[in-house]
């Protein structure tokens, strides 16, 4: 089968022909329908020193079921999405509790890139899979299984009430998902970015107001006036330290900062501001498979789907370069 892989010797993404996998104990073999590119696919520290298939956002149809995975509510032909855990050895269970890579040396648990989804087939542990509601477009649903679920968890954990203000900082793929979720939950949304194109996308999917924090020098004052004192929460989806630097400034007293984007350098917060309640800080992620259903059900109920750019597997190297350069305005999705 064809697979998009990171080649450490060539130090680039290549398309290789590799053996079709077989379902192991407790697994499905899934024919991938679509797979999408996520910013974390670009992180060099997540790449091993051997060829590895990229991608951790995917959906597809079950082709075979290992006997140990039978009777779990799935059947051959089912449309499924899946979280990106490869499995759990239960030696320490840290991987399940903390959504982390295995430290025990179990090769099946070296991270989500061990068995990536930019391939025609993939194996999936049954515990990590969920049936896809029929209302969701399979070709557009791959981004849900990282970007979408992460954005849902972020918005859902912001402790907001209908009518309150959420600042979405970083209006790319995750930010566009977050805007749709927030509007569906009854919140008011401000989109903040340094790209007018991304801000236009945020407006398109429902943002009440948008601000370019680079070109509009008075945006903080405008936000405070619009929200009558500041946002009740801000969620940072940009993988940028400057994005975090301005995130607390859009909050009202006692507002919540939601940490999502993985910044390259450690974040700095004022301990005085935290201890005196000027603002609060939380963080969330895609998290464990047990949290998927709430996000998937909400997505289907409100028919929330991302704006995507469809590609072929042969386009993956160019897709990586496009995202790396910051020119990807939509989710980039390979359809098989």
Automatic annotation (TrEMBL):
Record flagged with keyword Transmembrane helix:
no
> Which Gene3D superfamilies does the UniProt record give?
Medium-chain alcohol dehydrogenases, catalytic domain, NAD(P)-binding Rossmann-like Domain
Task: Domain (Enoyl reductase (ER)): give its ranges.
Answer: 9-334
Q: Which family does it belong to?
A: Belongs to the zinc-containing alcohol dehydrogenase family.
Protein's organism? Mytilinidion resinicola
- Could you list this entry's UniProt keywords, alphabetically sorted: Metal-binding, NAD, Oxidoreductase, Zinc
Name the SMART domains on file: PKS_ER
Q: Which domain of life is it from?
A: Eukaryota
Q: Which InterPro entries match?
A: ADH-like_C, ADH-like_N, ER, GroES-like_sf, NAD(P)-bd_dom_sf
The reply to whether Zinc figures as a keyword in the UniProt entry is yes
One MF term in the entry's GO annotations: metal ion binding
**Name of protein:** Alcohol dehydrogenase
Which cofactor names does the annotation list? Zn(2+)
Q: Pfam families, alphabetically?
A: ADH_N (PF08240), ADH_zinc_N (PF00107)
